[in-house]
Amino acid sequence: MMLSAAMVLLTIVEWSTIATAFSTNRLGRFISPRTVPIFHSAKTDEVIPGANKNATSNSSKDKAAIIFLHGLGDSPDGWASLAEALPNLRPSLASLDITYVFPPAQMVGITVNGGEKMPGWFDVYDWPIGVDAKDDPKGLAMSVKRVEKIVTQLKDEEGIDPSRVVLGGFSQGGAVAIMAAYNRRKKDAIPFAGCICMSGWLPMKDYLDVSEETAQATPLFWAHGQYDEKILFEQQMYGVNKLEGVGVDVTAISYPVGHESSNFEEIDDMAGFLEAVLCPQPETRKVPKYAQVDIETAGSVTDDDETNALLYYLCAIGIQEYDASRGLSTPYETPAL
Questions:
Q1: Residue in 97, 228, 268, 269 annotated catalytic
Q2: Among residues 171, 199, 254, 261, which one is catalytic?
Q3: Is 259 a catalytic residue?
Q4: Which of 133, 236, 320, 323 could form a disulfide with 129 if both were Cys (CB 3.0 to 4.6 A apart)?
Q5: Which CATH code of 3.30.360.10, 3.40.50.300, 3.30.70.100, 3.40.50.1820 fits the domain covering 31-284?
Q6: pTM more than 0.85
Q7: Residue 228 among the catalytic residues
Q8: Residue ranges of the chain with pLDDT lower than 50?
Q9: Residue 224 annotated in active site
Protein backbone atom coordinates (compact mmCIF):
# COMPACT_ATOMS: atom_id res chain seq x y z
CA MET A 1 0.00 0.00 0.00
CA MET A 2 1.44 3.37 -1.04
CA LEU A 3 0.74 6.29 1.27
CA SER A 4 1.10 9.93 0.35
CA ALA A 5 3.00 12.28 2.66
CA ALA A 6 -0.28 13.96 3.58
CA MET A 7 -1.90 10.65 4.53
CA VAL A 8 1.11 9.68 6.64
CA LEU A 9 1.12 13.06 8.41
CA LEU A 10 -2.62 12.82 9.10
CA THR A 11 -2.18 9.30 10.39
CA ILE A 12 0.59 10.37 12.77
CA VAL A 13 -1.47 13.27 14.09
CA GLU A 14 -4.59 11.14 14.63
CA TRP A 15 -2.72 8.30 16.32
CA SER A 16 -0.64 10.68 18.41
CA THR A 17 -3.76 12.47 19.68
CA ILE A 18 -5.41 9.23 20.75
CA ALA A 19 -2.25 7.73 22.23
CA THR A 20 -1.50 10.86 24.26
CA ALA A 21 -4.99 10.89 25.70
CA PHE A 22 -4.73 7.23 26.65
CA SER A 23 -1.41 7.76 28.41
CA THR A 24 -2.73 10.60 30.54
CA ASN A 25 -6.26 9.46 31.35
CA ARG A 26 -8.31 6.43 32.29
CA LEU A 27 -9.73 4.24 29.55
CA GLY A 28 -12.15 5.98 27.26
CA ARG A 29 -11.41 9.50 28.43
CA PHE A 30 -10.12 10.33 24.96
CA ILE A 31 -13.76 10.30 23.91
CA SER A 32 -16.19 12.70 25.50
CA PRO A 33 -17.92 10.86 28.37
CA ARG A 34 -21.67 10.53 28.48
CA THR A 35 -24.17 9.62 31.13
CA VAL A 36 -24.87 5.91 31.03
CA PRO A 37 -28.53 5.07 31.60
CA ILE A 38 -29.73 2.35 33.93
CA PHE A 39 -31.05 -0.88 32.45
CA HIS A 40 -33.74 -2.23 34.76
CA SER A 41 -35.18 -5.70 34.65
CA ALA A 42 -38.93 -5.93 35.03
CA LYS A 43 -38.53 -9.62 35.76
CA THR A 44 -36.08 -9.32 38.64
CA ASP A 45 -35.08 -6.71 41.19
CA GLU A 46 -31.58 -6.44 39.77
CA VAL A 47 -30.60 -3.07 38.36
CA ILE A 48 -27.78 -3.17 35.85
CA PRO A 49 -26.02 0.17 35.40
CA GLY A 50 -24.37 0.54 32.04
CA ALA A 51 -26.69 -1.16 29.59
CA ASN A 52 -27.16 1.20 26.70
CA LYS A 53 -27.68 1.27 22.97
CA ASN A 54 -25.65 2.91 20.26
CA ALA A 55 -27.08 6.35 19.63
CA THR A 56 -27.87 5.30 16.06
CA SER A 57 -29.38 1.91 16.87
CA ASN A 58 -32.66 0.79 15.37
CA SER A 59 -34.68 -2.38 15.13
CA SER A 60 -33.48 -3.12 11.59
CA LYS A 61 -29.91 -3.74 12.74
CA ASP A 62 -28.49 -7.04 13.94
CA LYS A 63 -28.68 -7.21 17.72
CA ALA A 64 -25.73 -8.04 19.94
CA ALA A 65 -24.51 -7.37 23.47
CA ILE A 66 -21.16 -6.77 25.12
CA ILE A 67 -20.94 -7.42 28.86
CA PHE A 68 -17.74 -6.12 30.44
CA LEU A 69 -16.74 -6.68 34.07
CA HIS A 70 -14.41 -4.21 35.80
CA GLY A 71 -11.49 -5.15 38.01
CA LEU A 72 -11.05 -5.35 41.79
CA GLY A 73 -11.69 -2.03 43.53
CA ASP A 74 -12.91 -0.38 40.33
CA SER A 75 -16.36 0.59 39.08
CA PRO A 76 -18.27 0.50 35.76
CA ASP A 77 -17.30 4.15 35.21
CA GLY A 78 -13.76 3.05 34.43
CA TRP A 79 -14.92 1.16 31.35
CA ALA A 80 -18.26 2.65 30.27
CA SER A 81 -16.65 4.73 27.53
CA LEU A 82 -15.95 1.53 25.62
CA ALA A 83 -19.48 2.03 24.28
CA GLU A 84 -18.13 4.95 22.25
CA ALA A 85 -14.50 3.94 21.83
CA LEU A 86 -15.12 0.57 20.16
CA PRO A 87 -17.40 1.81 17.33
CA ASN A 88 -14.93 4.65 16.72
CA LEU A 89 -12.08 2.18 16.34
CA ARG A 90 -14.12 -0.23 14.21
CA PRO A 91 -16.95 1.63 12.42
CA SER A 92 -18.58 -1.66 11.38
CA LEU A 93 -19.54 -2.17 15.03
CA ALA A 94 -21.67 0.98 14.77
CA SER A 95 -23.76 -0.79 12.14
CA LEU A 96 -24.97 -3.23 14.80
CA ASP A 97 -27.64 -2.71 17.45
CA ILE A 98 -25.33 -3.32 20.42
CA THR A 99 -26.36 -3.23 24.06
CA TYR A 100 -23.38 -2.52 26.33
CA VAL A 101 -23.60 -3.75 29.91
CA PHE A 102 -21.12 -2.68 32.61
CA PRO A 103 -22.39 -4.23 35.86
CA PRO A 104 -20.94 -3.18 39.24
CA ALA A 105 -19.34 -5.70 41.56
CA GLN A 106 -20.65 -6.00 45.10
CA MET A 107 -18.65 -4.98 48.16
CA VAL A 108 -16.54 -7.97 49.17
CA GLY A 109 -14.07 -8.50 52.01
CA ILE A 110 -10.63 -9.05 50.46
CA THR A 111 -8.41 -11.30 52.57
CA VAL A 112 -5.12 -10.16 51.03
CA ASN A 113 -6.11 -6.60 51.94
CA GLY A 114 -6.72 -7.36 55.60
CA GLY A 115 -10.39 -8.15 55.06
CA GLU A 116 -11.21 -4.62 53.92
CA LYS A 117 -14.33 -4.45 51.79
CA MET A 118 -14.14 -3.11 48.26
CA PRO A 119 -15.91 -3.69 44.93
CA GLY A 120 -14.95 -7.20 43.89
CA TRP A 121 -16.29 -10.29 42.18
CA PHE A 122 -14.76 -12.71 44.72
CA ASP A 123 -12.19 -12.86 47.51
CA VAL A 124 -8.45 -12.71 46.80
CA TYR A 125 -5.99 -14.57 49.01
CA ASP A 126 -2.66 -14.03 47.23
CA TRP A 127 -0.81 -11.05 45.79
CA PRO A 128 0.55 -11.08 43.17
CA ILE A 129 -1.67 -13.70 41.57
CA GLY A 130 0.32 -16.51 40.00
CA VAL A 131 -0.74 -19.91 38.70
CA ASP A 132 -0.75 -21.38 42.21
CA ALA A 133 -3.01 -18.69 43.69
CA LYS A 134 -5.85 -19.85 45.92
CA ASP A 135 -9.37 -19.65 44.47
CA ASP A 136 -12.65 -18.52 46.01
CA PRO A 137 -15.13 -21.05 44.54
CA LYS A 138 -18.17 -19.62 46.34
CA GLY A 139 -17.48 -16.04 45.28
CA LEU A 140 -16.78 -17.10 41.72
CA ALA A 141 -20.00 -19.12 41.55
CA MET A 142 -22.04 -16.16 42.79
CA SER A 143 -20.52 -13.83 40.21
CA VAL A 144 -21.03 -16.33 37.39
CA LYS A 145 -24.66 -16.59 38.47
CA ARG A 146 -24.99 -12.79 38.20
CA VAL A 147 -23.63 -12.94 34.67
CA GLU A 148 -26.12 -15.66 33.77
CA LYS A 149 -28.96 -13.48 35.08
CA ILE A 150 -27.83 -10.61 32.89
CA VAL A 151 -27.65 -12.89 29.84
CA THR A 152 -31.17 -14.17 30.56
CA GLN A 153 -32.40 -10.62 31.03
CA LEU A 154 -30.93 -9.54 27.70
CA LYS A 155 -32.64 -12.43 25.95
CA ASP A 156 -36.04 -11.97 27.60
CA GLU A 157 -36.26 -8.18 27.42
CA GLU A 158 -34.02 -7.20 24.51
CA GLY A 159 -34.36 -10.28 22.31
CA ILE A 160 -30.59 -10.82 22.23
CA ASP A 161 -29.63 -14.47 21.89
CA PRO A 162 -26.64 -15.64 23.99
CA SER A 163 -24.90 -16.56 20.73
CA ARG A 164 -24.73 -12.81 20.04
CA VAL A 165 -23.26 -11.94 23.44
CA VAL A 166 -19.56 -11.28 24.05
CA LEU A 167 -18.48 -11.53 27.68
CA GLY A 168 -15.31 -9.79 28.80
CA GLY A 169 -13.54 -8.32 31.76
CA PHE A 170 -10.37 -6.76 33.11
CA SER A 171 -8.21 -8.42 35.78
CA GLN A 172 -10.58 -10.04 38.29
CA GLY A 173 -13.44 -9.35 35.87
CA GLY A 174 -11.55 -11.26 33.19
CA ALA A 175 -11.30 -14.28 35.47
CA VAL A 176 -15.08 -14.26 35.97
CA ALA A 177 -15.61 -13.85 32.23
CA ILE A 178 -13.58 -16.99 31.50
CA MET A 179 -15.44 -18.97 34.15
CA ALA A 180 -18.84 -17.86 32.89
CA ALA A 181 -18.00 -18.42 29.22
CA TYR A 182 -16.33 -21.82 29.34
CA ASN A 183 -18.05 -23.69 32.16
CA ARG A 184 -21.51 -23.56 30.58
CA ARG A 185 -22.70 -27.07 31.38
CA LYS A 186 -26.28 -26.08 32.16
CA LYS A 187 -28.87 -27.86 30.10
CA ASP A 188 -29.64 -25.96 26.89
CA ALA A 189 -26.91 -23.39 27.64
CA ILE A 190 -26.10 -21.55 24.42
CA PRO A 191 -22.40 -20.71 23.89
CA PHE A 192 -21.43 -17.03 23.73
CA ALA A 193 -20.17 -15.32 20.58
CA GLY A 194 -16.82 -14.70 22.22
CA CYS A 195 -14.89 -14.02 25.42
CA ILE A 196 -12.36 -11.31 26.29
CA CYS A 197 -9.81 -11.53 29.09
CA MET A 198 -7.77 -8.40 29.71
CA SER A 199 -4.93 -9.00 32.18
CA GLY A 200 -6.93 -11.73 33.91
CA TRP A 201 -6.43 -15.39 34.67
CA LEU A 202 -7.99 -18.84 34.49
CA PRO A 203 -9.49 -19.61 37.93
CA MET A 204 -10.46 -23.07 39.14
CA LYS A 205 -7.96 -24.47 36.66
CA ASP A 206 -8.18 -28.01 38.02
CA TYR A 207 -11.94 -28.07 37.46
CA LEU A 208 -12.06 -26.77 33.90
CA ASP A 209 -15.06 -28.36 32.20
CA VAL A 210 -15.55 -27.05 28.66
CA SER A 211 -18.04 -28.72 26.35
CA GLU A 212 -16.99 -29.41 22.79
CA GLU A 213 -19.79 -27.15 21.54
CA THR A 214 -18.63 -24.22 23.67
CA ALA A 215 -14.98 -24.70 22.73
CA GLN A 216 -15.82 -24.57 19.04
CA ALA A 217 -18.33 -21.70 19.24
CA THR A 218 -16.68 -19.28 21.69
CA PRO A 219 -13.27 -17.89 20.69
CA LEU A 220 -11.15 -16.12 23.30
CA PHE A 221 -9.13 -12.91 23.07
CA TRP A 222 -6.54 -12.68 25.84
CA ALA A 223 -4.44 -9.53 26.26
CA HIS A 224 -1.78 -9.35 28.96
CA GLY A 225 1.12 -7.15 30.02
CA GLN A 226 4.53 -8.79 29.89
CA TYR A 227 5.50 -6.89 33.05
CA ASP A 228 2.24 -7.31 34.94
CA GLU A 229 3.17 -7.15 38.61
CA LYS A 230 -0.31 -8.03 39.90
CA ILE A 231 -1.63 -10.78 37.63
CA LEU A 232 1.64 -12.38 36.59
CA PHE A 233 2.36 -12.86 32.90
CA GLU A 234 2.69 -16.60 33.49
CA GLN A 235 -1.08 -16.66 33.98
CA GLN A 236 -1.64 -15.90 30.31
CA MET A 237 0.74 -18.60 29.12
CA TYR A 238 -0.71 -21.18 31.48
CA GLY A 239 -4.34 -20.30 30.80
CA VAL A 240 -3.90 -20.26 27.03
CA ASN A 241 -2.31 -23.71 27.07
CA LYS A 242 -5.11 -25.12 29.22
CA LEU A 243 -7.91 -23.64 27.12
CA GLU A 244 -6.34 -24.56 23.80
CA GLY A 245 -5.90 -28.05 25.17
CA VAL A 246 -9.68 -28.44 25.33
CA GLY A 247 -10.23 -26.98 21.87
CA VAL A 248 -10.81 -23.26 22.49
CA ASP A 249 -9.69 -20.94 19.67
CA VAL A 250 -7.44 -18.46 21.50
CA THR A 251 -5.89 -15.24 20.25
CA ALA A 252 -3.25 -14.30 22.83
CA ILE A 253 -1.29 -11.06 22.61
CA SER A 254 1.21 -9.70 25.10
CA TYR A 255 2.27 -6.07 25.43
CA PRO A 256 5.35 -4.39 26.97
CA VAL A 257 3.32 -2.93 29.85
CA GLY A 258 2.34 -3.73 33.42
CA HIS A 259 -1.14 -4.15 34.88
CA GLU A 260 -2.72 -1.39 32.83
CA SER A 261 -6.15 -0.76 31.36
CA SER A 262 -5.25 2.28 29.26
CA ASN A 263 -3.06 0.72 26.59
CA PHE A 264 -4.21 1.82 23.13
CA GLU A 265 -2.93 -1.26 21.30
CA GLU A 266 -4.88 -3.58 23.61
CA ILE A 267 -8.15 -1.71 23.11
CA ASP A 268 -7.60 -1.54 19.36
CA ASP A 269 -6.92 -5.28 19.16
CA MET A 270 -9.97 -5.96 21.31
CA ALA A 271 -12.08 -3.90 18.90
CA GLY A 272 -10.74 -5.99 16.03
CA PHE A 273 -11.69 -9.20 17.82
CA LEU A 274 -15.21 -7.92 18.49
CA GLU A 275 -15.60 -6.97 14.85
CA ALA A 276 -14.50 -10.44 13.79
CA VAL A 277 -16.96 -12.30 16.03
CA LEU A 278 -19.97 -9.98 15.76
CA CYS A 279 -19.89 -8.71 12.17
CA PRO A 280 -20.93 -11.14 9.41
CA GLN A 281 -18.29 -9.81 6.99
CA PRO A 282 -15.66 -8.09 9.12
CA GLU A 283 -13.28 -5.68 7.48
CA THR A 284 -10.56 -6.10 10.03
CA ARG A 285 -6.83 -6.43 9.91
CA LYS A 286 -5.60 -9.88 10.75
CA VAL A 287 -3.90 -10.10 14.14
CA PRO A 288 -1.30 -12.83 14.75
CA LYS A 289 -2.63 -15.46 17.13
CA TYR A 290 0.44 -15.00 19.29
CA ALA A 291 2.22 -11.68 19.28
CA GLN A 292 4.38 -9.47 21.38
CA VAL A 293 3.75 -5.83 20.57
CA ASP A 294 7.18 -4.24 20.87
CA ILE A 295 8.50 -1.26 18.92
CA GLU A 296 12.03 -2.62 19.19
CA THR A 297 11.06 -5.64 17.10
CA ALA A 298 10.45 -3.36 14.11
CA GLY A 299 14.14 -2.50 14.15
CA SER A 300 14.81 -5.44 11.85
CA VAL A 301 12.81 -3.76 9.08
CA THR A 302 14.81 -0.56 8.58
CA ASP A 303 17.77 1.23 10.13
CA ASP A 304 15.80 4.44 10.70
CA ASP A 305 14.28 4.69 14.18
CA GLU A 306 11.73 7.30 13.10
CA THR A 307 10.64 5.15 10.17
CA ASN A 308 10.36 2.12 12.43
CA ALA A 309 8.17 4.05 14.84
CA LEU A 310 5.95 5.31 12.02
CA LEU A 311 5.55 1.82 10.55
CA TYR A 312 4.65 0.46 13.96
CA TYR A 313 2.01 3.15 14.43
CA LEU A 314 0.50 2.29 11.05
CA CYS A 315 0.30 -1.30 12.23
CA ALA A 316 -1.37 -0.25 15.47
CA ILE A 317 -4.18 1.56 13.72
CA GLY A 318 -4.72 -1.17 11.15
CA ILE A 319 -3.23 0.27 7.96
CA GLN A 320 -0.50 -2.37 8.00
CA GLU A 321 -0.22 -5.65 9.81
CA TYR A 322 2.34 -6.28 12.51
CA ASP A 323 3.91 -9.64 13.16
CA ALA A 324 6.23 -9.79 16.16
CA SER A 325 8.22 -12.66 14.65
CA ARG A 326 9.20 -10.86 11.43
CA GLY A 327 8.23 -7.22 11.65
CA LEU A 328 5.86 -5.95 8.97
CA SER A 329 3.80 -7.92 6.50
CA THR A 330 1.99 -6.63 3.46
CA PRO A 331 -1.54 -5.31 4.04
CA TYR A 332 -4.11 -8.03 4.76
CA GLU A 333 -1.62 -10.83 4.23
CA THR A 334 -1.84 -13.67 6.72
CA PRO A 335 1.42 -13.61 8.71
CA ALA A 336 3.56 -16.72 8.44
CA LEU A 337 4.43 -17.47 12.05
A1: 228
A2: 171
A3: yes
A4: 133
A5: 3.40.50.1820
A6: no
A7: yes
A8: 1-60, 282-288, 294-337
A9: no
